[in-house]
Amino acid sequence: MINKKEIVAMLLAGGQGSRLFALTQKKAKPAVAYGGKYRIIDFPLSNCANSGIDTVGVLTQYEPLELNSYIGTGGSWDLDSLNGGAYVLPPYVRGDSGDWYSGTADAIYRNINFVDNFDPEYIIVLSGDQICCMDYDKMLDYHKEKEADCTISVLNVSYEEAKRFGIMNTDDDNRIYEFEEKPAEPKSTKASMGIYIFNWKLIRQYLIDDANDPESEHDFGKNIIPRMLEEGKKMYAYSFEGYWRDVGTIDSLWEANMELLDENPQLDLNDEKMKIYTRNYALPPHFVAEGATVKNCVLADGCYIEGDVENCVIHSGVKVGKGSVVKNSVIMKDSIIRSNCTIDKALIDEEVVIEQGCTVGEGNSVTVIGCHSVALENAVVEDGAMIYPDTILH
């Protein structure tokens, strides 16, 4: 029985995030923590909920266990309705194909039956590894207004930044006439955000044809989009002017967290119209002990602060002991910092234990400690070090 939907979201959440190194050794990039209480995937899921899109296929792949259990049935994002929901879609054997998804287009192709079950007019393809607050309904209205075959969300970037992105060159009506992948000399600064709306019946055939092409890399940016342009399809750029960050590197993730501490942050997590939903763990309120100091910090539920923290994003369940000084850092869920430690400009992953008297970083480069690691008493972690999960530091 077909459950008819106007639009279905397909959320690509299988990214390894290799440039995050230690932070993605045991989890996919969309599962990485951010902002005190969130994970990166909370943003596209919340955008769907806020945009009235109630059917979301979440395509997982690399280290999927934590992400799968985190999403569950989608209830935290109001995506567990009887007529829709969040569906986790890992790679599976289909005919002779039992390997991982070989590209973004292949991931959607191998879930054609899932989309067909809802017989949508449109699909929106989303990235699970960006921090972005966006009303997809406005983009869909634009797509309909232009009577487009494909609409690609773009962000105006600087000329130098444009060299790192796929660039959409358009006419005065924003119709795309050329796509350039990381051009040395960009003709425009309209960078693709990796968010696409397609007419389903049309893109369905393109996906089938692409799957049967042995020369294809089965990628939207490299194969599908260029072919649609060559064949004269109506493709438009949708200009997005809100907050968007690709947190694909250690520095960019640290910077995105620090931006939340600005006097007037660009990302407004208090926006009632675009709430960011997340999974709640029913923890008690945070506690700041007598004699402790907290300056310009985000503190999540369940924190217990006895030391001094400044310019920090402190996730739920974190404990900072007496005499410890933590600056310019992100401390993730359930990590423990004992007494008399000094930490400056660090990204400390979940369930790390820093024993008393330790020094982590000097504030010049971002120092990273992977999950479940332990720094033994009086250990020194060098500035800019990359410590992988489950390490014991002497």
Task: Give a written overview of the molecule.
The longest helix has 12 residues, at 200-211. It is built from 9 helices and 32 strands. 47% of the residues are buried. The mean pLDDT is 93. By secondary structure, it is α/β, with parallel strands linked by helices. 19% of the residues lie in helices and 27% in strands. A hairpin with a 5-residue loop joins strand 9 and strand 10 (176-181).
Helix coverage percent of residues?
10-25%
Q: What summary fits the major beta sheet?
A: 7 strands, mixed
How much of the sequence is in beta strands? 25-35%
Secondary-structure content class = alpha/beta
Strand order of the largest sheet: 5-4-1-6-11-8-12
How would you classify the quaternary structure?
A: single chain
